[in-house]
Structure formats: C-alpha cells, structure tokens
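Much of what follows relies on a compact textual record of a protein's fold. Think of the row as the fold of the chain written in a discrete alphabet. An example makes this concrete, so a full record is given next.


***
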Amino acid sequence: MSRPRIIQPGQSYTFSKYFELPFSPEDILAELGCTYERERLQLPRTESLDKQTQQLQQLIERNLRRVKLLSEDARKQAIIAPILLEVCEIAQTQLNIEYAINVSDQLKGNLDYYIDKGKGLLVIEAKQADLSRGFTQLAVELIALSEWINLDKPIIYGAVTTGEDWRFARYNRQEKQITEDWKLYRVPEELPELIEILVGILSN
C-alpha cells in the first residue's frame, strides 16, 4: 500500500505553503523528485575583503545596537538587506527583492532575495525565525529557481537566515540533490567569513 501524498495533485502551493507543512524535508523533496542529505559543505570563497567587511561590520553592529529584532521586517532591514547590498556592490551586480516566479501550481511565489550574475544565489528570510522549516522552503525554491532560469551551472546555492544565523544549501541540478550545510554562520561574529562565501559563490 502506497503512502498518501503530501503534495496534493490539483492544489496550488506557494513557497510559503511549504514552510507550513509539518513533514520532513526528505519526504517533501522526494515528492518533487529530489533527494536530501546533510553534511559540512565546502563552499566557494573569495578572500582579501577585509576593507569592505570592516565597514559593513561596523554598520551591522550599529544596527544591532539601535534596532530591536522583533519582526521579520526589522531583521530584513537591519541585517539581511545591508549584507546582501554590500555583496552586490563587491560583485558588481543587482539584487532582486521579492522576485516572482511561476513554474507550476506546486512551484510558485516570490523569492525574498535573488542574485543572478550567471551563478544563481538565493537567500530567504526564515519566517518566525524557524531555520528548520525555513530550510525546507529554501530547498523547494531552489528547485523552482533551477527550472525558471537559464543557467549552465550544474550547482546553485542558497541560504536561509534569521539575520543573525545563516545556513547554506547546495542544489546539484543534474543529480537532483539538495544538500544542507550543518554549519551555522553567526552575525556579527562570523560576518567576514559569511561575506567571503556569498561573494565567492557569485565569483566562482
């Protein structure tokens, strides 16, 4: 006897709907034809960014002193957006905010932050500061993004963040495999390392 389906045929699913599903990422991604694993990812890096990250670190620390992170909008405006705008400045590219895509009834919605530059980097803010469910949503969005954009790259990357905590994902498009990095990057403590990775993804 086969197990009942999680994703119901004929029903509409936006990306935020996947955040609400109380199932494991393995089970949800299996229904989308993908496998899931968890390991320490060796992420691309660009070094020698000390000058840029020093100024950004001062800005983020000032924002953390002056802003109470009680809402998703506060986290986006005080931490996430300034970091990604600095990454785009270093990489000389555009930041797409609330980037709408519609692949199918099961894969549609708005991507919080998407940076193209021929590489594909997706960043989403974890609703309710829940990184676990936020990761499931990120994984689904990476699958959708892979079908929406015209990229030659076999690997695309994403990150889910509360602003202070960042976790990366890698999507192998050929093998249809999502890998979750088990390391968390903390802001402001590990901001230089985080910037090196974000710029590295866009540069390699």
